[in-house]
Design a protein that fits this description.
Rieske Iron-sulfur Protein; 3 domains; seven-stranded antiparallel beta sheet; 12 helices
Length: 499
């Protein structure tokens, strides 16, 4: 529980947002939910009575959000002590070295948790007859199974709760805010606004000066207008965002470490430029970024606003292609590349694998998601893309291809949404996707490959180029690696290609 989170602070702040609340109405005013968290039973009991009188199951989400900010029960095994994770979420928070807070205090051997939290859970048990007890994950899974009919002032409660963590978060949930996603699926990620600091116009060096990198180290490679740059995972994992310029194009490069996705976005739409930051909030375990002009929250996996004044504007950032590969393979293919300097201006352990080491070492999640699919392990890597429909106006079709499958098929063709694509996978694991007219048979991934008609194509970063006519191109399509759970939670209708 953040130290700034106080019940008195909630009540005072809510009064400032909503003004004085008079008689009970339906639905119950948000202030009654806040008053239900007061220590004084003379205030809390009437508040719960009023909530019960206008009860709808969808209101359980508000009480769970409040309960999650309070101390959970800790009943360790005999003779042991359990560290208090100090996290708002019940699905994790046990990972150290990832930039997210971890508490170090030791509770009593039989810590029953916050009495106010127990009060809220008991009330939920009575109202719903679900009897999930203090298992907040089960409560949330049940809430997500219901039709989304939120309390009309739900965003105001989000503003107050998160405003106790960081006052800057209040700006994400102004009165009457529009939302394209379920507010009950938004999580606090354990940090403040820009608490994981973005790299803004980071210093870059030549390969000769990148003495800190070894051949096997993982990098994310981007080429725009002939300019190549590598972003080492060991650096970007500590910052999760880089604001940079490559080939004359301003980019916002977003790395969601929790879901394993790196996506370079153009920072401008038409003549409008955006300056992005890290909100400290998550949706389906995927980072939500925000633009500093409107304070709208944007999906980092789709590049569009999902909460705020820009929702419904039609704005969407353009993705640029990226590959995940080794430093040796990248610099060999692009000897003129630049690469991030290890001198970022921040003090971090930038050694390979230091960031999120524990999280990457197992298949458990740090934050709960509402949808899961067991065809692959949670953190199995997949190559992901959203392909445009064959006709104008058709919805994009999400596709995920198991990375291990592609390792055994360095040249692989598939059809989706009436279009044909070819995936070229290098020996170092870099995946590049091209939209093609004819399929390609299985073959080695060399600089020149042949389609089923026998036509030769030269593989470049921007396109496959017909060897007999350089004006004939098969354009490259933006695609990214991701963890299966994170992609599926966002796109449960995805087409999965696996072994």
């Amino acid at each position: 529980m953040p130290k700034a989170f106080t019940l008195i602070g909630l009540t005072v702040a809510l009064a400032a947002v909503t003004g004085a609340v008079a008689a009970q109405t339906a639905p119950p005013p948000i202030i009654r939910f806040v008053e239900a968290t007061r220590e004084d039973d003379r205030i809390a009991t009437p508040a719960l009575r009023d909530i019960a009188a206008g009860w709808q199951d969808a209101y359980a989400a508000l009480l769970i959000d409040l309960a999650r900010m309070m101390r959970a029960p800790r009943i360790p095994a005999a003779g042991s002590l359990v560290p208090d994770p100090g996290s708002a979420g019940d699905s994790g928070g046990d990972d150290a070295g990832d930039g997210r807070p971890r508490g170090g205090g030791l509770p009593d051997l039989a810590d029953r948790g916050s009495p106010i939290r127990r009060r809220l859970i008991a009330f939920l048990d009575r109202q719903t007859r679900k009897n999930f007890g203090d298992d907040l994950d089960r409560w949330r899974a049940w809430i997500w199974s219901l039709p989304y009919e939120p309390h009309p002032e739900y965003a105001a409660l989000k503003s107050i709760i998160y405003g106790q963590i960081d006052p800057k978060m209040r700006a994400f949930f102004p009165p009457g805010v529009r939302s394209a996603i379920r507010l009950d699926e938004i999580d606090w990620g354990g940090v403040t606004v820009n608490g994981i600091p973005p790299l803004r116009r980071p210093r870059v060096v030549t390969p000769a000066d990148a003495k800190y990198l070894r051949d096997s180290h993982v990098v994310f490679g981007i080429v725009i207008n002939g300019e190549a740059r590598a972003y080492p995972k060991r650096i970007l994992a500590w910052h999760e965002m880089a604001i940079d310029r490559i080939g004359g194009i301003d980019l916002t490069i977003v790395y969601c470490t929790l879901c394993g996705t790196v996506i370079p976005y153009e920072s401008t739409i038409g003549d409008r430029g955006f300056r992005f930051g890290t909100s400290g909030l998550l949706y389906q375990s995927n980072k939500l970024m925000f633009d500093e002009d409107s304070n709208s929250l944007w999906s980092s996996i789709e590049g569009k606003p999902v909460v705020g004044s820009l929702v419904g504007s039609g704005l969407q950032l353009r993705m640029r292609p990226v590959v995940t590969t080794t430093w040796k393979e990248w610099r060999t293919a692009h000897p003129q590349t630049t690469v991030l300097s290890i001198n970022t201006g921040f003090t971090r352990d930038y050694s390979e694998g230091a960031a999120y080491r524990d999280y990457f070492s197992h298949d458990r999640l740090m934050f709960q998601v509402s949808k899961a699919d067991r065809r692959l392990a949670n953190k199995a890597e997949v190559l992901t893309l959203r392909v445009a429909g064959a006709a104008a106006g058709d919805a994009a079709v999400p596709v995920a291809i198991e990375a291990r499958f592609l390792q055994g098929k360095p040249v692989f063709s598939f059809d989706a949404a009436g279009q044909r694509y070819a995936v070229i996978t290098s020996p170092g694991g870099a995946n590049r996707v091209y939209r093609v007219a004819a399929p390609f048979p299985e073959q080695r991934a060399t600089d020149v490959i042949r389609d089923v008609r026998g036509r030769a194509w030269t593989v470049t970063e921007d396109a496959l180029v017909a060897a007999d006519d350089a004006t004939i191109l098969a354009p490259r399509i933006a695609a990214q690696r991701a963890f299966w759970f994170g992609w599926y939670a966002q796109f449960p209708d995805t087409i999965l290609i696996q072994r």
